[in-house]
Specification:
Length: 440
């Protein structure tokens, strides 16, 4: 390997040895983070950090102010209702109507401790509904923690990478998995972490139709709600609406995170929206674990009660205020986050100008949107090799291999923490990388 790398070669080697890492490329996200922290400290040089998906923007002021006011009024002393304070439930219901054109009654809308608690609770409850259906299916690539949530609960899961099954091809592949009859629910994120693919209406329709045919609950993770910036989904009550499987099935659970949309990750508050039909579904098998055979009751008074007995009271007021502002068109929350898409566009070009390829690059016939993440590979290198080398060039990212992607040559790059003032550094480092690793 060349020693004239942008970050001092010997210092990088020293830090790798100090951390006792066998191989940098297969280290966990947190280990890479620690290694990069140490090198930055040792060299005084700043990395282009693309490994972690943290919001890079300040939290919504509207939320912060409402939360402070609620705390001053004393809500910290009072247990909130398990399924959320009434005005928040109403505002969540209004949000899905305004921005998804979807009707769900307030009763079926719950705040959760981050959308992660929503998915955990959904897995728990769904696999207990029907003795024959004990498995969760993931449409990969995906967020590794979701699989971890199944693992810690001993829930079996199945998965496939949709890379080769876009458009109509999805039908046969998905049916192959659902035909087995053991799938209780399937989950995907849209826009997708890590690839930033967005399902087309054709694909959402296929998912909805097959969910109806095989009685499978669709869990749609909308952590990046409205962030397919090729369209403007930000006008309340006006099309276009955030595309969703809700148009094609009434057997769904939505997870809407406030972490990225409102840059509110720290307060751990998200939303779980259960279709009214599913909320009212009776399933005798639930009685093995719960006092009720009603899915909605089992979820609220069984699972969520057991997990955390509800969601932090003050944070619910923050969410209420942010949703109200969005629903009334008083504040456009998508304006600030558009910056992610704009940065991605510039950064992707820097990569492709220097020999890199975008791994997931199309939604059927359309070029991919620019957003929070994008995926890259370099000819002739595995993802593990690429991460290993990047450390010497002042760049960090994570391997797609841990996301269920079959494209193990690829890396996920997250744009949120990269400041525009770092673009010249990124460009210089990528040029050096290209120069040191010529492509035939
Ligand atoms: C796809 C996906 N789902 C869920 C989450 C977690 O959301 P929350 O912070 O609301 O728990 C993330 C956060 O990175 C994500 O990328």
């Amino acid at each position: 390997m060349r020693k004239d790398t942008p970050i001092d070669f010997n210092e990088v080697q020293k830090q790798i040895e100090l951390m006792n890492l066998k191989e940098v490329g297969t280290a966990s996200i947190r280990e890479i983070k620690r290694l990069v922290d140490n090198i930055e400290e040792g060299t005084g040089q700043r990395y282009v950090r693309m490994e972690m998906g943290i919001p890079g923007l300040p939290p919504s002021e509207i939320g912060v102010e409402a939360e402070i006011e609620a705390l001053r009024e004393g809500v910290a002393a009072i247990y909130p209702d398990i399924d959320g304070i009434k005005p928040l439930k109403q505002e969540i219901s209004r949000f899905v109507k305004q921005f998804m054109n979807t009707d769900v009654s307030p009763k079926s809308c719950l705040p959760t401790v981050g959308s992660m608690q929503g998915s955990f609770a959904a897995f728990t409850t769904l696999v207990r509904m029907n003795k024959q259906k004990d498995t969760i299916l993931f449409l990969d690539p995906g967020f590794p923690v979701h699989k971890q949530q199944c693992k810690v609960q001993g829930i079996p899961f199945d998965a496939f990478d949709i890379y080769n099954y876009r458009g109509e091809k999805l039908r046969e592949k998905l049916e192959e998995h659902l035909k087995k009859g053991n799938v209780a629910g399937l989950l995907y994120s849209n826009p997708n972490n890590p690839s930033w693919i967005c399902f087309t209406d054709t694909e959402l329709k296929i998912i909805g139709e097959l969910a109806n045919k095989y009685n499978v609950v669709v869990m749609e993770d909308l952590a990046y709600f409205g962030m397919d910036f090729r369209q403007d989904y930000s006008k309340p009550g006006q099309p276009p609406y955030q595309p969703s499987v809700t148009q094609y099935t009434d057997n769904y659970i939505l997870f809407i995170s406030s972490s990225k949309l409102f840059s509110y990750a720290g307060q751990r508050i998200g939303m779980m929206v259960i279709s009214d039909k599913l909320f009212e579904t009776r399933a005798e098998d639930l009685c093995r674990y719960y006092n009720s055979d009603l899915f909605g009751r089992a979820m609220v008074f069984g699972t969520v009660y057991a997990l955390s007995s509800g969601t932090a009271h003050a944070a619910q007021y923050a969410l209420l205020a942010m949703l109200k502002a969005a629903n009334e068109g008083a504040f456009n929350f998508w304006e600030p986050v558009k910056e992610y898409g704009e940065k991605a566009k510039i950064m992707k070009k820097m990569f492709t100008d220097n020999g890199f390829k975008i791994v997931y690059d199309r939604d059927e016939d359309k070029p991919l949107a620019d957003g929070f993440f994008f995926t890259i590979s370099y000819p002739g290198m595995t993802g593990v090799e690429l991460i290993e080398k990047f450390v010497y060039y002042g760049i960090s990212a994570i391997s797609l291999a841990i996301t269920g992607s079959e494209r193990s040559e690829g890396l996920r790059a997250c744009v949120s923490l990269v400041g525009r003032e770092q673009f010249p550094d990124l460009e210089y480092r990528l040029k050096k990388f290209h120069e040191h690793h010529p492509v035939d």
